Amino acid sequence: MxxxxxxxxELVALAKDGDESALNQLYRVYAERVRWMVRLRMGxxxxxxxxxxxxxxxxxxxxxxxxxxxxxxxxxxFIRWLSKIAENELRGNLRRLHAEKRDVRKELRxxxxxxxxxxxxxGTLGPIEATTPSVIMSKKEDLAKLEKAMDELKPEYxxxxxxxxxxxxxxxxxxxxxxxxxxxxxxxATRAMVALAAAFRSI
Amino acid sequence: xxGPVNDKQENVIEEAVRQFVxxxxxxxxxxxxxxxxxxxxxxxxIRQRIQDVQKIDALFDSLVQSDESDFEEAAAGQDLVGxxxxxxxxxxxxxxxxxxVVYLARDTKLDRSVAIKSIPxxxxxxxxxxxxxxxxxxxxxxLNHPNIAVIHEIIEQDKDTDYLVLExxxxxxxxxxxxxEPLKMEExxxxxxxxxxxxxxxxxxxxxxRDLKPGNIKLTPxxxxxxLDFGLAKPSVSEGKNVEITxxxxxxxxxxxxxxxxxxxxxxxxxxxxxx
Lengths: 203, 276
Prior knowledge:
The complex is a heterodimer.
Chain A: H1 2-16, H2 20-42, H3 44-53, H4 56-65, H5 75-99, H6 104-113, H7 135-138, H8 140-152, H9 155-166, H10 171-178, H11 182-202
Chain B: H1 7-25, H2 32-37, H3 43-64, H4 68-75, E1 84-85, E2 88-96, E3 101-107, E4 112-118, H5 121-124, H6 127-142, E5 151-158, E6 161-167, E7 172-173, H7 174-180, H8 185-204, E8 207-208, E9 217-219, E10 225-227, E11 234-235, H9 262-265
Helix pairs in contact in B: 1-3
């Protein structure tokens, strides 16, 4: 798969130089992936709010416009960077939305226009919705199931899956982060995976 | 199929699966047949669980790894953004339908927004696609209904590329609307009624939509419903006998799987009933 990683790297380089079409291509390849990454990480409660706003598109556009700060290492690294930014921004938006009193009109406006874009996406049929046969779209149902299965996990298993499988950290890094031994993390992560598989099956 | 397992067996299964996962994540490639043989009586369950784990692992992988088709998809139709087609300036790509790419464009003569649909370059020389495209234009033009997006123009820019200039419908799609908050009964009824009127008007002219789904239904800010994307439409067999042969290849399945009718999914002939 590394050749496609190279393709991404090329596009990132072009996009950094201000190539609009490269930016658009990156968006189209990664938007749906980022959306799922963010959803899987957020958990049930935040996700339900996310659904009523669906700001992932806007935040992603914004994240891509910040490419200058990004140094390309590999494809996984790139998408994790994107999803992290998108997630942070979403959380910020949710906080703001919460801070403004729950005025129905405000919520509508935010929903329709999004806080971070120009009028480019105003009310248009978003690209995410387009009927594309891309690989990630074909996995939609399974990803939705996975999302539910993640909710069933106990918090420490959930965290272990997020750190190892979604953020792609090594056992050593997770160990430092959680203040555990690498062997303990390995045990935790593999148990979490077994539990996740069981939850996945029962849904 | 093996029977239910007791707690003790469940523990054995879980630990076995865990060890298998552990070995795989270490980069080893344990042989699954050989592995499950160590657990006679539980081998079926263990194999099943391992397959679930592998499926989930693959799902996580697919999130962080793109593949070739994604880039092909993304590259198709990119070249038009920023360019002009006739008197229309292409602003951005806003979607991809069953057979073409859809752009938002600015009509510089009349100073309004329009939607422009083109056939991706790689399909432009496919005569079937082209035929279907022309048919769509004619079908749409013959449908004059407030709940169906209208066609403004067809542009034959050069010998092998055509563009449909369509009414641009602002607002949310029904998908977005439902995701935002549940529909009130009154609203749902109004939407359903308008869709029914649009579809019924089309059916009276012998035109079937064949890809009717929430993603193809838009709600304008004024609360009017517009049915989009008659891209898959064809005259129905019973009423379109005098019309030329159907543009879709026989046995060639078109539509969105989640919303297809059974006869459509089987690649059989469809009639009005497929829309309902």
